[in-house]
Design brief:
The complex is a heterodimer. Chain A is α+β, with helices and mostly antiparallel strands. Chain A has helices spanning 50-71, 77-92, 134-145, 152-169, and strands spanning 4-8, 12-18, 21-23, 26-29, 35-39, 42-48, 99-107, 111-117, 123-126, 128-131, 177-183, 186-193. In chain A, strands 10-1-2-11-12 form a five-stranded antiparallel sheet, covered by helices on one side. Chain A is globular, with a radius of gyration of 17 Å. In chain B, 38% of the residues lie in helices and 22% in strands. Chain B has six helices and ten strands, in the order H-E-E-E-E-H-H-E-E-E-E-H-H-E-E-H. A five-stranded antiparallel sheet of chain B has the order 8-1-2-9-10. In chain B, strands 3-4-5-6-7 form a five-stranded antiparallel sheet. Chain B is globular and about 70 Å long. The termini of chain B are far apart. Classes of the chains: A alpha+beta, B alpha+beta. Chains A and B meet through helix 1 of A and strand 3 and helix 2 of B. Chain B: InterPro entries: Ntn_hydrolases_N (IPR029055), Proteasome_alpha (IPR050115), Proteasome_alpha-type (IPR023332), Proteasome_asu_N (IPR000426), Proteasome_sua/b (IPR001353). Chain B: Its main location: cytoplasm. Chain B: Keywords: Cytoplasm, Nucleus, Proteasome.
């Protein structure tokens, strides 16, 4: 039910995730932010078991911060991705984290990069990746439309096309999505795509 | 194995913990460190003993970040400092992970002091040979704080303090000259206090300034030299003023 996907552009990377928090047949909220800012130039979009997702991503974020204080320089995206995979791998045969992760980052020497890390600790460096039922549609759309060196406008256009496919073709489609971007100026929220907004409660 | 749990820090007949007092001696031999708290700025200044010509001075940082809003300087055994600083940095992140809030200055000071105390009451270990000066702004109240810990594990808050070599003379100077300051005035007060015992010049001082909005800023040698020049000019002007008065009637 949860969808997370991402792609690498000319000198940026984008990660998009749905924002529904679901428990059995009840939708708790439609504006859950599943893409965490690890540090100034890294994003981590995660899907999976809600408790594991929050716990694991916060744990990674604090360890990334600790590395920076200990060593005076931030982790590279590759190092952070490998560290994350290592933590998943260590826990796998004891108490696995049911979390799928798409990590995007920008390094000055390497440029933008994207890493696919699934819950059984596979790690792949890719230009485009997706998780969840939405991945069937996301990967097909990206296979058809993705090109190297897309501009931000072209990439967002593709992301919107993907969101449209997910909304129209997936039976229990999440209504709202959040899009975050990372480039040389840092990691930040780019936009929300909301088709359902919480109605304000009328005053008594 | 039974031999290694004999305590090293034991009471003397007249109630002293000699190992702790010897640790304080080690602190007294360490480099001078000064901390001054202003209304919106907190400054740490540490003496830099002459750097060997071939040494890369950037690898010897005496004032370190524990978190975005907390910094620490110390006097004493630098290797012991590395261990304490590492534990403190982990605790800062761990606190954020468990309670979703950055540490207050008092919390992390209490943690470091608690750690130092543990090593005065455990088997087979010696106390940490250092005193620390911890500065920072509390996360939501933005109150500036300066704390000091020592090898015995005691800690207290200060408006201004010094530790290490000649700390008594520096503290006397601060007691005489302390007043509520802000911004650049706080920096100058800290540097003036340290310059009482240290040869002046950017090469001999390491100075770091913490503000609420910009976190910790380590001053470059050039910046330090500029402020030292200002201080010397002010001193000279004050001397001249003292000699001039007889002309005024």
């Amino acid at each position: 039910m949860e969808s997370v996907f991402g792609l690498v552009g000319k000198d940026f990377a984008i990660v998009a995730a749905d924002s529904s928090a679901v428990h059995s047949i009840l939708v708790h909220k439609t504006n859950e932010d599943k893409i965490m800012l690890l540090d100034s130039h890294k994003l981590m979009g995660a899907s999976g078991e809600t408790g594991d997702r929050a716990q694991f991503t916060e744990y990674i974020q604090k360890n990334v911060a600790l590395y920076q204080f200990r060593n005076g320089i931030p982790l590279t995206t590759a190092a952070a991705a490998n560290f994350t995979r290592g933590e998943l791998a260590t826990a796998l045969r004891k108490n696995p984290y049911m979390v799928n992760i798409i990590m995007a980052g920008y390094d000055k020497d390497v440029g933008p990069s994207l890493y696919f890390i699934d819950y059984i600790a596979s790690l792949h460096k890719l230009d485009k990746a997706a998780f969840g039922y939405g991945s069937y549609f996301a990967l097909s759309m990206m296979d058809r439309h993705y090109r190297n060196d897309m501009t931000v406008e072209e990439a967002i256009d593709l992301v919107d096309k993907i969101i449209m496919e997910i909304r129209s073709r997936l039976v229990v489609a999440p209504p709202n999505f959040v899009i975050k971007i990372v480039d040389k100026d840092g990691a930040r929220e780019y936009a929300w795509r909301e088709s359902i907004k919480d109605a304000p409660v009328p005053a008594a | 194995m039974a031999r290694y749990d004999r305590a090293i820090t034991v009471f003397s007949p007249d109630g002293h913990l000699f190992q702790v007092e010897y640790a304080l001696e080690a602190v007294r031999k360490g480099n001078a460190a000064v901390g001054v708290r202003g209304t919106d700025t907190i400054v740490l200044a540490v003496e830099k003993k002459s750097t060997p010509k071939l040494q890369d001075s950037r690898s010897v940082r005496k004032i370190v970040n524990l978190d975005n809003h907390i910094a620490l300087a110390c006097a004493g055994l630098k290797a012991d400092a590395r261990v304490l600083i590492n534990r403190a940095r982990i605790e800062c992140q761990s606190h954020k992970l468990t309670v979703e809030d950055p540490v207050t200055v008092e919390y992390i000071t209490r943690y470091i002091a608690g750690l130092q105390q543990k090593y005065t009451q455990s088997g087979g270990v010696r106390p940490f040979g250092l005193s620390t000066l911890i500065i920072g702004f509390d996360p939501y109240t933005s109150v500036p704080s300066l704390y000091q810990t020592d090898p015995s594990g005691t800690f207290s808050a200060w408006k201004a303090n010094a530790t290490g070599r000649n700390s008594n003379s520096i503290r006397e100077f601060l007691e005489k000259n302390y007043k509520e300051t802000s911004g650049q005035e706080t920096v100058k007060l800290a540097m003036r206090a340290l310059l009482e015992v240290v040869e002046s010049g950017g090469k001999n001082l390491e100075v770091a300034v913490m503000t609420k909005d910009h976190g910790l800023h380590q001053l470059e040698e050039a910046e330090i030299d500029a402020i030292v020049a200002e201080i010397e000019a002010e001193k000279a002007a004050a001397e001249a003023a003292k000699k001039a008065p007889p002309k005024e009637t």
